[in-house]
Amino acid sequence: MAGKIMMESGAEIYRVEDTMNRIADVATNKKGISFATPTGIFMSIEGERNLQLETIPTRTINLEKVSLVNDLSREFSSRNITLEELHSSLAQLEKDTRFFPVWWQVIAAGLVSGALMIIFGGAWFDFISTCLIGTIGFIIYYYAAEWLKIKFLAEFLSSFVIGLLAVIAVDSHLGINLDKIIIGSVMPLVPGVPITNAVRDLLAGHLLGGMARGMEALLTAGAIGIGIAVVFRFFA
């Protein structure tokens, strides 16, 4: 359960395996044997025949949950809590969504878009336009992902709309730098954490998981890039 929560929340594979093994070591006084991938977790105990499998159907970024599972595993490893208390705490944490409200995410996406546009060398004149376009793009991504159930199509659709709105803003003299507006507006969609985790997993020796996560991040970046490229090809 701890590994499943961490993997669904965007933790690195080596962290997931280490946490599960530490819990197993303390609980059974035997060595835990685990194998984690982005889509499934295998767990067993040394000398035992039983093997447990947990599938990971969805993955998101929720580092607060990762931190809370780490805290619980440390408490259990220090024998400050019992195995039953650990299980009940993890069960409660698994049911807890612990996400900011959608309107908070939308506002944050808009502010991040505008701020990063300035950081990348954009003009203050483009700030409001970038915030609005980034907000609209994130809203489209959020609800398209809920409706289509295919993350890459949602990213393509949202980046296409972002590029189209940026072209309209510049043509209407509501913006100056088309490229800076687009760069800032797509930043909430960029898979920064998956790319970082893929590199960390590869460096830690988890080649299969690192390559899988790297491919997922590459597909996300490709979907975003293709959406912008279509706008440049036909509308810019």
Automatic annotation (TrEMBL):
Subcellular location per the Swiss-Prot or TrEMBL entry: Cell membrane
GO CC aspect terms: plasma membrane
Protein family (similarity comment): Belongs to the ThrE exporter (TC 2.A.79) family.
Membrane topology: Multi-pass membrane protein
Example of a GO biological process term: succinate transport
Pfam families: ThrE
Organism of origin: Listeria aquatica FSL S10-1188
Transmembrane helix in keyword set: yes
Top-level taxon in the UniProt lineage: Bacteria
GO molecular function: transmembrane transporter activity
Name the record gives this protein: Threonine/serine exporter-like N-terminal domain-containing protein
